[in-house]
Amino acid sequence: MNKYIDEVLEKLVQKNENEKEFIQAATEVLVSLKPVIEKNPNYQKTALLERLTEPERIITFRVPWVDDNGAVQVNRGYRVQFSGAIGPFKGGLRFHPSVNQSIMKFLGFEQVFKNALTTLPIGGAKGGSDFDPKGKSDNEIMRFCQSFMNELQRHISHNLDVPAGDIGVGAREVGYLFGQYRKIKNTFEAGVLTGKGLEYGGSLARKEATGFGLIYFVREMLKANNIDLKNKTAIISGSGNVAIYACQKAAEYGVKVVAMSDSNGSIYDQNGIDLNEIKRIKEVERLRIKEYQKKYPNSIYTENKEGEIPSIYRIKADIILPCATQNDINIDCAKILVQNGAIAIGEGANMPTSNEAIEYFINNNVLLAPAKAANAGGVATSALEMSQNSMRYSWSFEEVDNKLDCIMTNIFNTCYKTAKEYNLGINYAAAANIAAFKKVSAAMDAQGII
Ligand code: NDP
Question: CA-CA distances (angstroms) from residue 186 to 151, 153, 179, 180, 348?
Answer without folding.
Answer: 16, 12, 10, 10, 37
